[in-house]
Specification:
Chain lengths: 161, 351
């Protein structure tokens, strides 16, 4: 009898995501090309993507705040291995970007630049997909690219570096 | 051994679909309430442990996201079990026994509505020989129920009576999802969902969260609420492969009950985590619980079965009831896995 050396057991689970109030507000706004965060009433930090609560204070966020689609790289990683669902060819750069007006960086992709040129403090801007392709998803932003603005000095990035 | 007590318990109302709150927002609500009711300042709680499953959320590291609900700054001592919150409570209890903390926050959450729960639960099975067959949680429970009928001594009518009692008791539980008067004969006239189980034999699919605060010795005595002492707690597991078990019996429950010091004659009530009607019958036999004992005054898992939460809620419900009635012993039970694979028993006493 021939020994079994490997088997394939494909698995697929489907989910229907239900957005909370804060998440829904964020997604509705990004569908219109706006980035809207939520502010903590106690520590006044602004979170983008919007959250219904402040992770620092453990209380509900309150005001909605428009933020810019320009930001600053707080840290980054050069990726040299291809992966599914990412259009960019390696090497490309995954970076944490702190948007102007927000107090929490989020991870995103950088494009339209040489990975060797990426640095902490580099200024970047969102590259949006064509308007007719927009929907209630962060994927409306294809990636971020250098904006050409002068770098933010590392010491001004405070706790993020 | 240190004396450890349940000080407070909070839960969300359980719903078929929580449409407006994220997991984090549900957790924040119950954690805030449980801490406030415990009398222990948030910053003084020594340890936090949660129970949940990323398969329920359909998102890797969803459990880490839940920490956002805590306001964990400055950083806290925190852990997680990919299990029902009852096992998170067990970990917290061990942590306190070790002297590493004097108090702990335990919470659990899940929004099963986002996926197809019976199929999601299939992922717990052996991935080589069993899961690829696609057998789901309800079908496995039906195999267990069929084995029990074949063994004899119990009928489908007995199970329907359990459903009727659970739904009736749930009418007094504002957090329950499935409640109301029903009649055994009408239930038995319904078609099978998966033979020999009818819809009433199966739990509802529920979204929700719950939190418990426990504390030791003088910290518990001084905190404010009347402590409900954990007199014993133990959990045991059976083989992963359902085919090698006698599904009509629950030796792991019997052993956990013995190790936890459960004495049936002395109990005021038992909260059993039996998602299927026939499983309550198996658990009663395993624990030697007599006919007269009050079972599941909350309505149990047949009235609301939030995955990863329902076991912890049994402990919370049992503790709250004997705290309100003033004295006595209660047994709380939690289960995990298919067909009662793993079981936890907790014996509680109100002073």
């Amino acid at each position: 009898m021939k020994p079994v050396t490997s088997i394939e057991t494909p698995t697929r689970l489907e989910y229907e995501f239900t957005a909370s109030g804060a998440q829904a507000e964020f997604l509705e706004n990004i569908a219109r090309g706006r980035l809207v965060g939520k502010r903590c009433p106690r520590c006044e930090k602004v979170y983008v993507p919007a959250r219904g609560n402040c992770p620092r204070c453990g209380i509900a966020t309150s005001d909605s705040v428009d933020v810019s689609d320009h930001g600053t790289v707080t840290t980054f990683c050069i990726v040299r291995v291809p992966s599914q669902n990412i259009e960019l060819d390696p090497p490309y750069c995954a970076a944490n970007v702190l948007l102007d007006g927000s107090d929490m960086p989020f991870i995103t992709l950088l494009g339209e630049c040489e990975v060797e040129d990426v640095r902490i403090g580099m200024r970047v801007e969102a590259v949006w997909k064509p308007k007719q392709e927009w929907g209630p998803t962060f994927e409306n932003i294809r990636h971020f690219r250098p904006s050409g603005e002068p770098d933010v000095p590392v010491e001004k990035l405070g706790a993020w570096v | 051994m240190r004396d450890v007590a349940v000080l407070s318990f909070a839960q969300t109302p359980y719903k078929r679909r929580e449409a407006s709150r994220s997991e984090v927002e549900m957790v924040m609500a119950v954690v805030t309430e449980a801490i406030a009711d415990s009398g222990i300042p948030k910053g003084a709680i020594g340890f936090t442990c949660s129970g949940s499953s990323d398969y329920i959320a359909g998102q890797a590291f969803a459990f880490v996201g839940a920490v956002d609900a805590l306001g964990a700054w400055p950083p806290i001592s925190e852990s997680h079990v990919e299990m029902d919150g009852a096992w998170a409570l067990y970990e917290a209890w061990v942590k306190i026994q070790c002297g590493a903390a004097d108090s702990a926050l335990v919470f659990a959450f899940g929004r099963s509505s986002m996926g197809r729960l019976p199929e999601t639960l299939t992922m717990q099975l052996d991935p080589y020989t069993l899961a690829p067959l696609g057998i789901d949680a309800v079908s496995l429970a039906a195999l267990q129920a069929r084995s029990l009928l074949d063994r004899g001594g119990v009928t489908e009518r007995d199970w329907a009576e359990i459903a009727v009692r659970s739904r009736r008791d749930a009418m007094a539980n504002p957090f329950a999802q499935l409640r109301g008067e029903s009649e055994v004969d009408k239930l038995l006239a319904e078609p099978y969902l998966v033979s020999p189980l009818r819809k009433h034999d199966c739990p509802p699919i529920s979204d929700g969260a719950a939190a418990v605060v426990i504390a030791a010795d003088d910290v518990a005595r001084r905190a404010g609420p009347r402590p409900v002492w954990i007199r014993g707690i133990d959990h045991r597991i059976e083989p992963h492969q359902p085919g090698v078990r006698d599904l009509t019996r629950s030796p792991s429950t019997s052993l956990a009950g013995r190790k936890a010091g459960a004495v049936p004659e002395r109990l005021e009530l038992a909260e059993l985590h039996a998602p299927f009607t026939h499983q309550e019958w198996i658990l009663r036999e395993a624990l030697g619980l007599g006919e007269g004992l009050r079972i599941n005054p909350s309505g149990g898992a047949l009235a609301a079965n939030p995955m990863m939460v329902a076991g912890l809620a049994r402990i919370g419900e049992a503790a709250q009831r004997i705290r309100e009635s003033g004295s006595g012993l209660a047994l709380a039970h939690a289960t995990q896995g298919h067909c009662l694979q793993q079981n936890l028993v907790c014996v509680l006493e109100a002073e």
